[in-house]
Amino acid sequence: MALVTMHELLQDARKRKYAVGGFNVFNFETLGAVVEVAEELKTPLVLGIPERLFKFVDVDTLGAAMVRAAQKASVPVALHLDHGHTYEGIMKAIRWGFTSVMFDGSSLSFSENLKRTKEISRIAHSLGISVEGELGYVGCYDSLRDLNEDNLVKPEMAADFVDKTGVDALAVAVGNNHGAYRGAPKLNFSRLSELSAAVQVPLVMHGGARLTRDEYRNSIQSGITKINIATDMSQAAAERLKAELAKNPNANYIHLMSVVKKGVKDSVRKYMLCFDCISKAI
Q1: Is 82 a catalytic residue?
Q2: What is the mean pLDDT of residues 57-86?
Q3: How many distinct helices (H) and strands (E) make up the chain?
Q4: Which residues, if any, are the signal sequence (predicted)?
């Protein structure tokens, strides 16, 4: 089924009430792990790489590998630049052949975020590429005490933002956060439902790791159509690697790569089983 736009995937998810997993990869092992699980479970997939990773890996080579993996996949795959912050980073992903880009202007003022997202949408849409915007602060919180009403997106602002930018999907802050913090997330499902009613585009949850199955289902029923997973995959890889080295300190690197890949696959499978996306590949 191969390479598709994120717009195509998320519109189907919104219609049929499931969430597509947005999984960020950071090397060939994680790339293979995510695609293999999606094919095993027959799920649509958003395969991503964040711009911040550009400084750590050979992104041109990894980007080309992602395009090739998507083209060969037996399920529909959208290739997505996650958390693009610069024009240069977004243009790089477009040149690779990605079908979706995100401009993350959430740290900017509302007016500046709107202005820059609108310009990215104009360029991307002229090339048939989907755009995700972000509104509200989805930060990295150390404690639940840092989450408050001011961090949540207001429906009227979301509607204005979507109308003026023309984005295909909107990442929203409703009590979710990136990374990991102490305690359990406290999602505002009533606000999420209000946002879904206010805008006519699919909603995205960033920082979607380690919720309960009921919380995922409530999120989906309240309008979420893509759930991003990144940090938890990295942690799963690290935990599996440490456990294997403790058990087998003389293990060679080739063996360790296979152990890491299995750990990532187990993590990805766990999340996909919660997103109601099994056998939804179109």
Answers
A1: yes
A2: 97
A3: 10, 8
A4: none
